[in-house]
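Archive entry. Fields below.
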Amino acid sequence: MNRILTFLLAAVVALCPSGLFASERDARPFVVVIDPGHGGKDYGAIGKVTNEKTINLDVALRIKKMLKDYSGIEVVLTRSTDTFLSLQQRADIANAAQGNLFVSVHVNSVDRRSKNRLTVKGASVYTLGLHRSNANFEVAKRENSVMELEPDFSTTYQGFDPNSTESYIIFELSQNKHLTQSINFAQMAQGELVKTAGRADRGVLQAGFWVLLASAMPAALVELDFICNPTSEQFLHSVKGKEKMARALTDAIVKYAEAHPGTMPVSKNMVVDDASDSADSEDAEPDDASVATEQEAKAAKGVVTYRVQIMACDRRLPDNSPEFKGLKNVDSYRQGGFYKYTVGGDFASEEAAESYARKSVRGKFPKAFIIKWRDGQRID
Ligand SMILES: [Zn+2]
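PREDICTED_STRUCTURE:
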């Protein structure tokens, strides 16, 4: 009996290599193109101790290293050194690699004149679309303006003017057949940046980024946090912070790749030391807590933002009150003799606030609704 089994097993084992060989010949891994924004003469946003191009590259290199732990995923970086690349060159690299996913990594900032420059904070992930708020337009304008550093930019970008609102109409007119998948990834990335890297949640947004338009694959642009906020800059600059943000994006890429693999399955290599993983997630907790207590982000003068209101109460509750059922970034305002409470901070668009309310709030507060906010008060 044993000899028959051994014989059968031997036959199966002998068959496997040729079978594998045939499928491996055209097996294709999931290809993720990671694009560290800016580089070389283009510094991106500038902070007090560091700058955007340096953070973007560092985080991208860490993601590449972390993804080595997975088979079935291949990483292509648009740049792996401090070099200048045009937006078109970045898209060309992505398209030549026939990527399954394009992730552009950036750091956010607001104008020097903005009142909230020192307190604005949080991560947001953008997919392609026409901006629905001024704040989103400003982010797209800043990220697109790098094209002005090229000598012949209006020819290369066919007359696109990063500073003109009309130019952005192309983002509404252009067909985007990858939008559903792009949003799918963007939600995973945003979720991980909040959960794993402890960033405040500014939501999944849409705006017209040239680099996303030109890449023919599902694509998202990540704004990790604000370099103009000293506390956030400290996190963006620290090794621990960069490691957490890279882990967050790595986990999102793996999750997405598992759902949309190439012709090779995605799996974690066996050699990985799990102890380091669990240490990482434990580390995430202190930052989560600090985010909850330091919610001070106020929008710039005249800018309309959106908040998620959960309840009204006749007395003032402490920020950590159990009444808030563990929700973070609690703010309050007074109206008609009541203290009214909002959670999650300021959102740039009604859609972002609504998506946050749906995902994170209405499970606990089914009647939560969106309010419009400007210059420190409710305006609707
Ligand atoms: Zn940038």
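CURATOR_NOTE: The domain at 305-378 is CATH 3.30.70.1070 (Alpha-Beta Plaits).
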